[in-house]
Amino acid sequence: MPVQSLPVRDGSLHFRLLQQYLILLKKYPILTKSVTSGILSALGNLLSQYLEARKKAKHGGPVNEIDVAGATRYAIFGLIITGPVSHFFYQLMEVWMPTTDPFCIVKRLLLDRLIFAPGFLLLFYLVMNILEVISFLSEKYSLNILKKRISIQYNYVL
Predict the structure, then answer these.
(1) Are 129 and 146 in contact (CB under 8 A)?
(2) Per-residue pLDDT of the chain (158 residues; tens, 9 = 90+)
(3) What burial class does residue 150 get, using C-beta atoms within 10 Å of its C-beta: 0-12 exposed, 13-18 middle, 19+ buried?
(4) What residue segments make up the domains of the chain, in order of their start?
(5) What is the phi/psi pair of residue 106, to 5°?
(6) Dihedrals φ, ψ of 22, to 5°?
(7) How many CB atoms lie within 10 A of CB 64?
(8) Which of 71, 86, 141, 146 is disulfide-compatible with 42, CB 3.0–4.6 A?
(9) Measured between alpha carbons, how far is 60 from 23 in angstroms, rounded to an integer?
(10) Residue 133: left (phi > 0), alpha (psi -120 to 50), or beta?
(11) Exposed, middle or buried, 4 (CB in 10 Å: 0-12/13-18/19+)?
(12) DSSP of the chain
């Protein structure tokens, strides 16, 4: 027998923000996930830059300025690619492997890690290189250089 949830009236700001986020997630799932992914991607990039700069400063190394363009690239990737692709992939996985399926957790994990993740990683490097304004037609960069660069980055991570 399904239980109907009742809205809880809590005055805390955190709770109201969470409640509003969950409402938006139900009304506009792809848009909400995309915006969330873009924001979290940018914040993650900024945090990693900050921690790297702090580590370098601690050891007396030269500290680079925060690369806002890098954080912007991550935000764009999260907004345009990560949010929608992840949404549809996990929706399909729910259809292909329902929770009633024996070993569904193991199957989902294997599908995610062995098939989805390597392809998504390749897409990540491709889009990030394109967002770094590498032109296929310029004299300085050619398609072969782009392929080599992506191959090096992709193989390094794997």
Answers:
(1) yes
(2) 455 655 656 678 888 899 999 999 999 999 999 999 999 999 999 999 999 999 998 988 888 889 888 899 999 999 999 999 999 999 999 999 988 888 999 999 999 999 999 999 999 999 998 888 654 445 455 666 667 777 777 777 76
(3) middle
(4) 12-82, 97-158
(5) -65, -45
(6) -65, -35
(7) 10
(8) 71
(9) 48
(10) left
(11) exposed
(12) ------------HHHHHHHHHHHHHHHSHHHHHHHHHHHHHHHHHHHHHHHHHHHHHHTTPPPPPP-HHHHHHHHHHIIIIIHHHHHHHHHHHHHHS-TTSTTHHHHHHHHIIIIIHHHHHHHHHHHHHHHTT--SSSSS--HHHHHHHHHHHHHHH-
Q: Are 14 and 52 in contact (CB under 8 A)?
A: no
Map tokens 């993740």 to a residue. Answer: 117
Q: The tokens 């980055």 sit on which residue? A: 153
User: Judging by beta carbons within 10 Å of its beta carbon (0-12, 13-18, 19+), is residue 119 exposed, middle or buried?
Assistant: exposed
Amino acid in position 108: R
Residue 123 in tokens: 């897409």
